[in-house]
Write a structure and sequence with these properties.
The structure is a homotetramer. Chain A is α+β, with helices and mostly antiparallel strands. The first copy, chain A, has 22 helices and eleven strands. In chain A, β3 and β4 form a beta hairpin. Chain A is globular and about 80 Å long. The relative contact order of chain A is 0.10. Chains in contact: A-B, A-C, A-D, B-C, B-D, C-D. At the A-C interface, α12 and α21 of A face α12 and α21 of C.
Chain lengths: 451, 451, 451, 451
């Protein structure tokens, strides 16, 4: 690694969550100033969640600098309290600081607008794109990283890809308690205005320590870690899996499907041609095409489609732009079999069920419940005793044991709000409406034939 | 006024600033659900300020519901403590509640993307448009308001237009201490992460009271009012007038000018035609055209113009999208005469001064320093003593007297950052660069011939 | 109940936790101004915990007004959303408001200094004294309460004693989620500076509702309730059961024992006679004697005893006043049998084990883990579904199920710090010291013979 | 200076204001553990203010560790950004760190209970006592300090006494913006629950820098400094000078006077003899006598005096312990001459004016308005420009100029509440009461003869 220039004096960015983001290296400043990184300002961190929690309008830019800042603080703490002076892999080698901080800053750089929905429809992959942004010689990010050393872009990419040899660095960025999760929980709690995500970051940073296989937590800080796990659980239950946000994502999904269908049938043309989306509709896009996308690009085309002749497309973009979510109920493996009956009633009421109903499973969402016994076990959280003994967290915390391995999501069936709140037009089919009600109780699907 | 339906139970929206927004009337819920109001989600409250304070990405939607909530709380307080039972105009008639709350919610509904810059270039007027949205029979907002009574849309519009007969209602929405300013100061402070805007809302609400000519503040709460004035002063100085935000607005202004120029010369066509902006470029737009605009529409066209053949347009959109602000220095009436010399150097360095320099005066910005002695005096802040005597705030507060009538802005000259941080290419003109430096000291323009 | 005078306008007390305490009735104001209530200013809420968390110096006065305020807010919410107009016991009868608020304010009025330790040694009983303060005709509190009605003192006492007929009122003040616990968790968290106690009070208040048998919580607020239970669990683990606070309480206990012993042997006389404690040392005290006690009275006598000729008393008061806590280790039923060996070593080192060792069991402390299956089951927390079905919380919350019925305390053996941190004098017995170490590992007692 | 032992790892104390207090040196830990320092836990920071703001019960202990922590952070910042490597007195010599931190920690160690009132009556001097605690060979504090070097106690004392040669160190602890004031403003705001004291500590620490004559503030942080000055002004106006707190201090003053009078007349004997106060009543006390005092010692004797035969003493201790403040009105130089008339009415109503009236001037209180033009000018606040130019704050800040040199206090006349809120007994003298009212309007004394 070539000589890295420390800034003569820290630069700071004012941040509502961490108060200040401290930029100490020129390379970090240069990365922030790249076109690819600035683009993250135009992509919301939480996608459709701001339809449920109106304050949650923050971008991936703010989250990314926050992850960087937490990583910087971890490095500072490790360098002061656990410095490796003799190359011991038990302790922290501060030469790893820069690769850790760059990986932290750039870990989300491949994200596009409403990633989960967009990727599903257009077969994009934000992880592959992250890697490409880092390693392709054409990006500004790569240009900055190469100034550190020719191998540096690959090193940073390997931290994000979890193949970097030093597990301490990898776990700082991606593990059960990493800088990424800690920042997003705090930041999303701050902007949504919920209090569930407010764990004690300072205390967790104090009890983190490096060890041979990564990062462990001192026993006397066990409860702060436990509290973090509970916060995460609550945020998923209360915020990330909120049925209204999922309902809005369902609409987005359906409208992009409809747009694709119409494009394939030659019906997205003229002023309604989505120029910047064509490469994706054609399934033939370059990195540059991808970097032209952001939330505003999608909503601009949706706005144009408000006047499209297709009834379904026009209706769906209006439901999305004007926030008219679908309604939903929980179902279980037992009640799942009732869904075709519901779809039939909905169709009778005049809604195409392909576009106006959906089942959506919050297990699909990227919930990362801490579960050391799962098939693909993630890194365990290790508690380290005074004498160096390690214990996996759920063996010492009954609360965490209670959550571990339990899925916290629910399966829901989505349908038009009109089925339960009929408007004047819909009163025509009132018997249909009454029939539909019989399937619903206490936010759940029930079998009306058994009651 | 027809019967107004109270909701059987409050609905709440989670809000990071007020914790919860309480919706108690069906009409308020219906207004929030209109297409015109939902559109405010896509327009940032602070425009270019998020380039300086990255957390400040909140929309006009969040501010608008916040202004509504503060107004609701004022009404609750007035109704409980100062009810007019005999028609006394000294006290509060709670029949005014609904018109006040609707005006609060809708006061910003006519705003478009980056209003101040956009209006300047395209001759739009958000106040006129607000009025049109309320009173035009074609909008969803008007449709909801008319359900209260046929005159209700005009009444709400007259509160916003300050012609409504009851001054208590008008001052609640627009005066030196109104629900609008109180919400934006708190909200902008919350999202920027600065602490300057954090005055004591609860205390101010407690000491507000109606009187014949509007709203006054009890003497024992004078210091809370004083603190609010200082917060406002600090927020203007520190946040709203920040030179970097103004520099980004200058770029936006210049790039829209360039786009207009190119359009007029037939050079914004094909894939780079800004369909949704055409009515404004043609200076012939409808309300519906206006309601199609949002921040994303602008940045989508800017993204398309990244590939435009015009060097200046291409460069300016990149400076805007990639956040590369101009630099600036303060100047005074004395040093203003040096600006032509600077422009000449800048032109020699290869920048067209029409597009790469600007003078920008923060006096132009909507700063509303409390100044009872100005030519167009705004409503004074009245302090009310135990025995009912009124005293204008600045006569009892030396701090407020110190701020009153003092302009807090500064005049700045903006120029390309390359003039002070030359890149490799620019080193070619190094003597120019040295010459330029001589004009700058301590963030101010100086006369190098005199030093 | 006679006519109760509402204050013409609310009085407020500034409060760091609830922002303002709103006093709306004259009787509440009068109760706050009684001598018995003002005395709570001189008694710390958390006793010895401020030795561990230095910010936790707040008094029972602040907590008591906080419990009142939460109760007032619950009543407001019930009166607005669930008013009983026809005498239905499902809903809330607002005539109960005053008895509820008075009981809330006065529920802790019988507490004395360092209650748990003091009561143990002097056979006082703060619950009996609370009742006496309310119902004895000699107190100012009784005088104020009687102005409401002759039966009112007994009614308030019966709410605190849980025999009042309306279970809604009783559960407001004492149940698994009551105004008392909610205030102390928030307040203790605020003053200790820990974040564990910060649950979402506003949301819990919103989802509380009356029903026939007391108070239930709406299903859509289940997670806020769950979060409260976890906060409570964390506060007990992290704050209330902290080993250093318990070590200081052990010292207090031992020094009061020693003082009692010396008094009984005629050795607390002259300037060192604890005049205000004599009635308790004589086991013959009046209510008036009790009301003369406060934290300062105890520490004043301790200060006088700094010069007492008895070595043990002198040493113990100095350890208490100068904060020199005992050390401790956890033990289990298995390792308990090793304690006599440890005591013998300690005695060999020169410490009287009767005064310098203790076993202390945090199960003894008033931890009120939510446990519907215990022998003395407390009120269950009931979750109420949309259709009125009730479900006990732990049947719907895996987190709460994990905590329920699990004791969270630990048993500890306390001993002089000198045994592990020898001072110069103690190095004389260094082999003893080494022997002692062998019993300790990872904060636990181990069997050195087995290792 | 001998070798100083850094702790192998930071110890932390949880703090509600600074989150954690970081103890990095053994000597700091040892000082905190001295008997003299632990005694500060038993002395309230704000004395009688907790009678007005009930949350303000925090002790001088918490403030003292807070001042230490801010000083530690300043030193860290100076050491990182302005290290003196060549002995330059423009920059920071980190060898000064320990003396600065010790002085910060110990600056208030000489305070006794209710210092301002106590000192006035008993001629004690907390500054002289601070010096004695540091330099007397008999104290634990001196013992710890001597372990650094024989001269160290004197050095620390000279920092507190402002005679230490390095002005940077002196100004860190005592100047217009020092660690002392910054901690108490933040801490008192936190515990009172007011928001006026909440300035931006982090930003101020960032813009502080050493220069030859002390400490200056960078021009770009001018507004944070300005905001601090306004906070200070507001806290004095709203909290420190609150008339109710001053009324309680007047009572304390009067009751100590009465006790002194009775002692001198042989009437404080037997069980009511204030053993620990005798040396002060005799005006012959040792340092040890002084170190035995705390808030609880005073209130314990007051409790004993509740049964004293002297009517005035008994009444005054009850007013103090039971919080029954005097009332007050503002007067001016013009209306001052009316006070004898008021006193006469009060005497006619049965109150001895020597014990039941007072004039109290908040100018006497230690308000330190920033005033460079005063006769005894304090250190100025210097703003440092990019090119090193210094400017005194009030020359660049109109807000500060408005406050500078203006006294913010008021003169008040205190009298028994019974004069304006007659109880049943007092209704006997109703005409007196009516006559008294005529002197009062809008919280001010007026001349009833002129109206």
């Amino acid at each position: 690694m070539s000589e890295i220039s420390l800034l003569p004096r820290d630069k700071v960015l004012r941040d509502p969550v961490h108060n200040y983001i401290h930029v100490t290296y020129q390379v970090i400043l240069d990365l922030i100033n790249t076109s690819e990184f600035q683009r993250l300002r135009r992509i919301k961190q939480l996608g459709a969640s701001s339809y449920t929690f109106h304050g949650a309008e923050h971008s991936r830019f703010t989250h990314s600098v926050g992850v960087y800042e937490i990583t910087r603080q971890i490095c500072d703490n490790f360098a002061r309290n656990y410095p490796s002076t003799n190359g011991s892999t038990e302790l922290w080698d501060d030469h790893e600081r820069l690769v850790a901080m760059c990986a932290a800053l750039l870990h989300d750089i491949g994200h596009g607008p409403y990633s989960h929905t967009f990727e599903h429809i257009f077969n994009t992959d934000h992880e592959a794109i992250t890697r490409e942004i880092l390693t392709s010689p054409d990006t500004e990010v790569n240009h900055v990283l190469r100034q550190v050393s020719p191998e540096f872009p690959e090193e940073v990419a390997s931290v994000i890809g979890k193949t970097y040899p030093n597990p301490q660095v990898v776990q700082m960025i991606s593990s059960q308690i990493d800088a990424d999760r800690m920042d997003y929980l705090l930041r999303d709690a701050y902007h949504t205005g919920t209090k569930y995500g407010m764990f004690d970051l300072t205390r967790i940073l104090r009890v983190m320590r490096p060890y041979r296989n990564g990062i462990a937590f001192e026993a006397n800080g066990m409860h702060a870690v436990e509290d973090y796990i509970v916060c995460r659980f609550q945020m998923y239950q209360q915020v990330y899996f909120h049925p209204v946000s999922r309902a809005m994502e369902v609409i987005l999904n359906k409208l992009l499907h409809r747009a694709k269908f119409l494009y394939e049938h030659g019906q997205l043309t003229g002023d309604q041609k989505p120029t910047l989306l064509i490469p994706f509709l054609e399934n033939d896009f370059t990195l540059s095409d991808y970097l032209h996308l952001d939330d505003g690009v999608l909503t601009t085309y949706f706005t144009l489609w408000r006047d499209h002749p297709d009834d379904i497309l026009r209706d769906l973009v209006s439901r999305f732009l004007d926030r008219r979510p679908l309604k939903s109920v929980r179902f279980t493996p037992e009640t799942r079999s009732l869904i075709p009956e519901l779809k039939q009633i909905i169709e009778e009421a005049g809604f195409n069920p392909d576009y106006y109903t959906a089942i959506n499973d919050s297990y699909d969402l990227p919930y990362d419940a801490y579960d050391p016994s799962s098939k693909e076990p993630k890194t365990q959280i290790e508690i380290i005793e005074q004498d160096g003994t390690l214990e996996e967290l759920s063996t010492v915390s009954p609360i965490v044991a209670a959550i571990s391995g339990k899925s916290t999501g629910d399966e829901r069936f989505f349908f038009p709000r009109e089925m339960v709140k009929p408007t004047s037009d819909l009163q025509l089919f009132e018997p249909l409406y009454e029939k539909f009600q019989k399937y619903l109780r206490n936010d759940s699907l029930i079998n009306p034939h058994e009651v």
